Amino acid sequence: MPVQNPYEQYQINKIMTASPAEITLMLYEGAIKFCNIAIMAIDQKDMEKAHTNIMKTQRIIEEFRNTLDRKYAVAEDFDRIYVYVLKRLFEANVNKDKEILEEVNTHMRSLRDTWKEVMKRCNKA
């Protein structure tokens, strides 16, 4: 079934033609976006929307954990970060605590920015 919405088609093409590094960056951006939506939903007292978007963020972090290449020592460092973030997301979801979500977003932005820097350096090599 063809996609009718040009923006949706653009998004599909963007993902289908992205490199693994670009997909990782998109996932970081997605985690940040869903976390922001959850924060806004808590402000609007829409707990179902908050829950849905916290769960989307959790699934992205779980995917990062599942795809770590454990033959590299740095993978354990990332795993510890991801485990911590997942714990905080669980706490945020149970308590609908936007301060915890803001903390999670700080970590996600830091990871995203680090990833962008890695991508820049790899492209120069």
Explain what you see.
The chain has 125 residues and is mostly helical. The protein has one domain: Four Helix Bundle (Hemerythrin (Met), subunit A) (Up-down Bundle), CATH 1.20.120. It is 83% helix and 0% strand. The chain is built from five helices and no strands. The protein has helices spanning 6-16, 20-43, 47-66, 74-95, 98-124. Helix 3 runs antiparallel to helix 4 (74-95). The chain is globular. The protein starts with 5 loop residues before the first helix and ends with a helix. The relative contact order is 0.13. The mean pLDDT is 91.
Span between N and C termini? 42 Å
- Under the CATH scheme, which class? Mainly Alpha
Strand element count: 0
CATH third-level topology: Four Helix Bundle (Hemerythrin (Met), subunit A)
Low-confidence stretches: none
What is the helix fraction of residues, given as a range? Answer: over 70%
Question: Mean pLDDT across all residues, rounded?
Answer: 91
Q: In the CATH hierarchy, what is the superfamily?
A: Flagellar protein FliS
Classify the secondary structure makeup into a structural class.
mainly alpha
Give the total of domains.
1
- Provide the CATH architecture: Up-down Bundle
Mass-distribution shape: globular
Characterize the main sheet.
Answer: none
How many helices? The count is 5
Give the amount of beta strand, in percent. Answer: under 5%
Order of helices and strands: HHHHH
Write the layout of secondary structure elements.
Layout: H1 6-16, H2 20-43, H3 47-66, H4 74-95, H5 98-124
Helix pairs in contact: 2-3, 2-5, 3-4, 4-5
